[in-house]
Amino acid sequence: MCRWMAYSGDPVLAEDLLFRPDHSLIDQSLHSRLGATTTNGDGFGIGWYGEGAEPAVFKDIDPAWNDQNLREIAGQIRTPVLFAHIRASTGTPVQRSNCHPFRHGRWLWMHNGALRGFHQIKRDLLLAVEPSLFPDIEGSTDSEALFYLALTFGLEDDPFTAVARAVGFVEQVGRAHGVEHPVQMTVATTDGESVWAFRYSSEGRTRSLFFSTDVSTLVQLHPEAAVLRGLGAETRLVVSEPLGELAGAWNEVPESSAGVVRPGQDEIRPFEPVRP
């Protein structure tokens, strides 16, 4: 399937996150250890917040490990919020519009997993999208469809409830079409101020997801670690798999959970779909 990374904290160079860690997302594009596929070469994308009112995105269909343009811009982008995604297609075409993260206004969205039976249920799902949002759908993936369902159900007002309603709707439609376990997902979404992350699957065996330990705690554990120097207290990462092997640095997101990273107080809570 895919691998992704969400960063929130003090402004940081994108290359410091994408290329420098021992098991960076670029390394994971060739050597994923926890994903459904070892190689994730069906395109990539990054999204970040800078000077504009909306986030910028850079996406391409080349493998992330072999894109010189990504290396060029990663050394020039400094941002407090970065989304990065490497894609392994679950059946839809390898094209730019199908690469993550997806963008709508100030919102970014990326997904690892699949809506099973998407070919059969696609029409029912897309017909449920708010008509004013429908023209903005550019690609053909289940991931983008889930994003627009979440927007339809109120993502911009209450992300926790909106995603729960979107997932509940997909499960209802899928099971009506005979799909036993319709949803497999780890999802991240942001408005540039907060980052929400979700780990859920209909069968209760969801793909891996981790969050980073508080920086002050890590500094106490590893005062010798150069990689921690200069990181602000609000630095947080949510990743499909750890970027390195520093002891105590990574914590698994519990099964069927959702969390939010924001300045001040982070939160993690149980996640349960809301049926229509």
TrEMBL record:
UniProt superkingdom: Bacteria
GO MF annotation, one: transferase activity
InterPro entries membership: EgtC-like (IPR026869), Gamma-glu_amide_hydrolase (IPR052373), GATase_2_dom (IPR017932), Ntn_hydrolases_N (IPR029055)
Bias (Basic and acidic residues) ranges: 264-276
Keywords assigned: Glutamine amidotransferase, Transferase
Residue span, Glutamine amidotransferase type-2 domain: 2-276
Sequence segments annotated as region (Disordered): 256-276
A UniProt-annotated Pfam family: GATase_4
Protein name: Glutamine amidotransferase
